[in-house]
Amino acid sequence: MKPNRLPTLALISLGLVSLGVASCVPQQHVVQSWQVASPRINEGWKGNNGQIQWHPQTGQQTLASIGTQCFFCGDGIDTDTDGIFDNRDECPGTPKGVKVYWQAEHFGRNETSIGRPGCPFDGDLDGVPDYQDSCPDTARDIKVDGMGCPLDTDQDRVPDDRDKCPNTVHGAVVDPNGCPLDADADGVNNDRDKCPNTPIGARVNQLGCWILENLQFSFGSAQINSTSLPTLNRAVDVLADNPKVKVEVQGHTDNVGGEKQNLLLSQRRADAVRDYLISRGIASDTLTSKGFGFSQPLAKANDPVSRAINRRVELKPIP
User: Fold this and answer.
1) Structural domain of 23
2) Where are the beta strands (DSSP E) in the chain?
């Protein structure tokens, strides 16, 4: 005997427990003494007629008294063994052992648009099922990556939702707010960096300035010694990797000789370095040159070591 399809919910008295059946084509069956059992929660049990007893609203076990008429829905097949029969399972093929929703109304935050029977549980409602979620307790409305963890666009280990400096240079050390302690990632923190915005790859001194180490000129001239070419070629590589960076080639001398003479010499040496960089393919409109003579010494003493430090060519990034 098959009663008509129930449009929403039919409650049939089962003696000890009432069984709710929702929108199905049920089969009426009289419970026999050999069918009375205590099935495991959420699994139901099967009688000789091949039908399963389960509660479609709660997914819990239901008990029947001998001789009670019961309605059964489903054919008892659960292909992915998630406890939800195939005729109710909206996510067939769920991996074995994965926690799933039993019904559309069963989930933690009362969002009727989220849980679907047989679909993997998503406790933080971030769109990534718990069994795939590396960050299962993400706060609501936080954008996450494919692993379920908050997005970190600039990869500074501060999630975007807390990052007050979201476009930090890759590799920069940041504070808890995501703002750089070393904005140009040159190894010199901002509070000590006298030459900010040096390009990635530039070798800087303890002040964060890009000085061409071991750059040698013939005495009193702007002739670059051949031993200096490796230093210049490294600078070419850095500039080629950062084509949008503009730099001023700055020439500096020691205090030997007159002020005017040193100013002219520093300009000629700066020009020589600029010319070499251009000859190796660096765009001329990204390079300027200027000589400073002895007006900006790094070392104040007047000894050979200090004078050698002051004789230098710097590449200073400019806007």
Assistant:
1) 9-72
2) 9-13, 18-22, 27-30, 45-46, 52-53, 69-72, 246-252, 287-291, 312-318
275 and 234 Cβ atoms separated by less than 8 Å: no
Place of tokens 């904005």: 183
What are the residue ranges of helices labelled H in the chain? 229-241, 259-279, 304-310
Q: How many separate domains does the chain show?
A: 2
Asked if residue 287 belongs to a domain, the reply is: yes
The CATH number linked to 272 is 3.30.1330.60
Q: Is residue 220 part of a domain?
A: no
What predicted TM-score, i.e. pTM, was given to this entire model? 0.50
> Which of 33, 57, 72 is the last residue in one of the domains?
72
On whether the CB atoms of residues 303 and 196 are closer than 8 A, the answer is: no
Q: Out of 72, 98, 120, pick the residue that ends a domain.
A: 72
If one counts every other C-beta atom within 10 angstroms of the C-beta of residue 61, the result is: 18
User: Pairing mode, if any, of strands 69-72 and 246-252?
Assistant: unpaired
Cα distance between residue 156 and residue 163, in whole Å: 9
Please write the tens of the pLDDT for every residue from 159-207: 888 899 988 888 888 889 998 889 898 999 888 899 999 999 999 999 9
